[in-house]
Amino acid sequence: MNIVLIAMILALLIPIYEAWQDDDVWQKMLAFASIATKTSIMILIVSILRDDWMIGVVGVIILSVGNAALMLLAHVIKRLNDVSRGGL
Amino acid sequence: MIDILSYGCMGIGLLFWFWGTFPLVGKRSVLFKLHSLSVSDTLGSMSIVVGLLLKIPSEWPLLVLALISLAIWNTVLGYVLAYCSSSGNEISEVGDRSEYSAGEYGVSEYGTGGYE
């Protein structure tokens, strides 16, 4: 299971690198969406490894709240683009 | 046997993850990356969670909750990101709004929605 976790950490590094090197806000949003999902699954794996329910519940909450916050941020950025582009 | 199955599911999930994440670093458009990313993240994560379910069935309430929230949240997030990032393009195609200047922020300040 530790190997699975290490492979997941490697998979997590790619969107982190992408978020760092790309300038477009939507590419960064994509990277953060991927980071949020991967992190919450990793938390679930750690909770199973440690046989601790509470960490698992935290992982599921992060999955829901993290994605919800990203959706809200996407709408805010869209509204900013609309306002700055056409005064809508 | 169960161990092989669960590690197999987790291996498939990891493959999906890497398959969906590699194009992220490339120079493709937002929607192209979003498609492969949301498919791979959702399916990959679900097969990892199924692998966990096989390994430790006693935690099934928590893992089923994770499966359901994955299926709902990731899918809707992919849709919202696609809608928000591409909606800017339709507005600019509607017509010239020259009287509204981009203002001091400027469009590039907040990204062009993959519309260079």
Structural class of chain A: mainly alpha
Biggest protein-protein contact in the assembly? A-B, 50 and 57 residues
Mean pLDDT rating of chain A: 87
What assembly state would you assign to the polypeptide chains in this entry?
heterodimer
Description of the molecule:
- The complex is a heterodimer of chains A (88) and B (116).
- By secondary structure, chain A is an all-alpha fold.
- Chain A has one domain.
- Chain A has 3 helices and no strands.
- Chain A starts with a helix and ends with a helix.
- The model of chain A has no long low-confidence stretch (mean pLDDT 87).
- By secondary structure, chain B is mostly helical.
- Chain B has one domain (2-104).
- The longest helix of chain B is centred in the middle third of the chain and has 35 residues, at 60-94.
- The model of chain B is unreliable at 91-116 (pLDDT under 50).
- Chains A and B meet through helix 1, helix 2 and helix 3 of A and helix 1, helix 2 and helix 3 of B.
Gist of the model:
With 88 residues, chain A is mostly helical.
